[in-house]
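Exercise 7.
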Amino acid sequence: MQAPPVIRTTGLSYHYARGVQTLFDINLEVPRGSIYGFLGPNGSGKTTTLSLLLGLLNKQQGDIEIFGQHLLQNREAILSRTGSLIESPSLYGHLTARENLEVYRATYGASKTRIDEVLGIVGLDDTGNKVVKKFSLGMKQRLSIALALLPAPELLILDEPANGLDPAGIIELRALIKRLNRDHGMTILISSHLLGEIERMVSHIGIIYKGKMLFQGPLAELQGLQRQRARLLLRTSDNEAACRILREHAPELGEEGLSVVYDDTEQVARINRRLTEGGLDVYLLHPKESDLEQLFIDLTSEHA
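Solution. The predicted structure, written as tokens, is:
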């Protein structure tokens, strides 16, 4: 029997002041043990959704269940098992990493030994007396995640944690998130507008655009959709005639030449054979998969 999702929202909708609706019927399902990438352009409703999950905004319509409990009636119990990083927490620049964690330790009810544990988890246990204002942006972000880890959460919610990081910082962050999931069994919900980065770490993906969910499912399912949209790029001696010959392959003429849908390499050979038997010279046959970044653009542009 499949375990129930850690997060489930049903018909979640939200209006800001003056009747501006920002979320429309969001049905989010985050499986237990997953790394769920919540993707969308800036302003698509990601932060609003995460804020609702944490009770930072009042739910206006729909239902939120976390750990199988309704958020409205069980917020305190749910949040005791949840760590989060929404925007940037207040870090004290004149204090060390350890001293910053000590400031928040009592709030989370964490032990002193937990400080050593989380510093080790995020790779900041060797910073000693170095004050935070001398940290790199990547180190500050890891310290922010360490704060979220103080209560030893089962669920970790991160809102755009890669914002502003250089490539080295993004690689460090990616490794940390994978390690938290693999070694500590955390379910992780991470929002981002960077599909190319997210796809390297997640097991599941939800795509939101203008407050509406366009896709939700395992990463492999999205990759399957990507393969379905793969096309074969062709250049022939008469592309218009090639369109007539290959009309059942949904031909499209563009600046690069002619493209058609195809299923596998055997079909590529059959397409080539039909064109030559039709008296055409074939100058180019180039299978061209739609990468996930392009698929993301396609999905959002279809709903623009």
